[in-house]
Structures are given as structure tokens and as C-alpha cells.
User: Fold L-threonine 3-dehydrogenase from Candidatus Woesebacteria bacterium GW2011_GWB1_38_5b.
Amino acid sequence: MKKILVTGAFGQIGSELVPALQEKFGKDNVVAMGHEKIDESYDGILEKADSRDKNSLETIIKNHDIGTVYHLVSLLSVKGETDPSLTWDINMNGLKTILDLGVRFDLKIFWPSSIAAFGPSTPRDNTPQHTVLEPTTIYGVTKYAGEGLCRYYNIKYGLDVRSVRYPGILSWKTPPGRGTTEYAIEIFYEGLQKGRYTCFLREDTKLPMMYVDDAIRATIVIMEAPLENIKVRNSYNIAALSFTAGELASEVKKYIPNLEVDYKPDKRQLIADSWPRTIDDSEAKKDWGWTYEYDLPKMTKVMVENLRREFGIPA
Ligand code: AKB
Assistant:
């Protein structure tokens, strides 16, 4: 088979997608590409390159006979606001480089969009698949523009590029990153290690979320769906859980009864308030059979059990 390339292989999604692809297709068929963040102990084919560097990418694609790319590199919402130009450069020029190479080498491509593509003028409850997209963060602008670019390359060049709008992703393997939904990971890290957590969002802030195993399954299932089933070429809405910060804290307290949580909303609250509360994912369900497995209690249990083991904290 032609090999699979994963860019951003050591980020939140990549760290879990790469082992899942290795398991499914064999270690020799998966190439993990990182740039600044690389796990030197990684067991598999490793490449170090900047996803904006067309020549390096071309060499990697040719040398490894790549047929599929999961292009995951992206700066998230909070980090994005600290340097909008860099965010545009990495998120958009990286994507365009991959799409151009996709046309040239007839690649099949996965690219993640996000609920950040929506904005305050989008209906926030049961957000439709096709709706107003007026994001107010540079990260969201790159996701919105990226969706348009993917759709354009499909129409213009027939490129098979597929995408989902990830909600906030919860995972225990990588520490919380520079995103707005990352409070939902921080509460586990700080709750278990310090017994207290100050949340940067209001207690009643409700956002769409998903346990990482469901996100990985969505990513692999959409890529395996028959071509004719993929009807949405900008990006599919997918949904699993929607909970408030307070509801998550109550669930975590079932495992850490003495946990103290307080709420000190900062500028990240504005970002959260511009995003949907719940998502309508009926088109993903209909077109390629999307379903989720992890509800709030199941996700909380897995997060606590794994992090307790990681931190050496007895139950
Ligand atoms: C973020 O919070 O920036 C991301 C996202 C929702 O895409 N997790």
C-alpha cells in the first residue's frame, strides 16, 4: 500500500492518531512528521520538517511513496491571538502547501476544522451544518478560510480532501494546550495534582466536547467512507457531549470529593461565548455513519483513571 503521512504527529490528536493508524495499517506504513514538538522515543518512521516547506514535504512524499496525508498542524485559539500573522502563516500556508502537493501527487487528505469556524452570529444551539460563519478569532478565521480552500480544491481539481469540525477534545496523553476548551483538561491535571482548580471560564459556559477516542474514530471513519458518501466538502459538523464548566466540575468531584473549583473568567470567556453550545451533526450521521461512544461519566472515569496512573496517585 501507499504510505500514510501525519503532520503535527506529536500534538494532541496526532499523538493518538498515529498509534491508531500504526495498529490498523502496520508501523511500516505510517510516517510521523513533527517540527518543533517531537517525541524522540517514538517507535516508527519519523520525519522532521516544517509543513510550510514545500520542498521538504515533496521529498518526504516521494521518498516514502505517500498516498494519504492527515494534515493536523495548527495553532489553536488562545495561542493564535498572541500572533495572528504566524497563525495565518502556519494554519493557511501549511494547508495550501499540502493541498497543492495533493493535486500533484494525487493524495487523499484529511484536514481538521473546528467549532471555532463559527462566530457570535451563528445559532448557538443545535448549530446547523450550513449556517453563518463569522468567526472572531484568527484561529477561527483560518478554519473558515481553510474549509473554503478545501472545498475549492475539490471542485476545481477533484482533490479528495475530507474534514470534520472538531469540538473541544479531551485527552490525557498530552498536557493541556493553548486552546479555549483546554480548561476541561486542566481541571483533571490540576485537580488530581493540587486538589484545586481556578477555571478561566464562567461556571455556566457550555461548549461542545468529545473524548479523543471518538475524535480518532471520526477521523478514520470519514477517511474510509466511500467517495460518493462524502457530500460536504468544506467540513462536517460532528458532536458528542455538551457540558458546562460547572457540570464537568461536579462529575470530576465524584472522584476527587475534596476538589475546590472557583471561576475567574478572563479574555478567553469572549472566545467561548462566540462558539456554539450544541451541534447538529445529522449530516455526518447520515452520510458516513458518525456516532460517539463516550458520554460525560465514561469520559471522566477514563481521564481520572489514566491520569492517576500517570501521576502515581493511588485511587
Ligand atoms: C481550541 O479551544 O482552540 C480548540 C478548538 C475548539 O478547536 N480546542
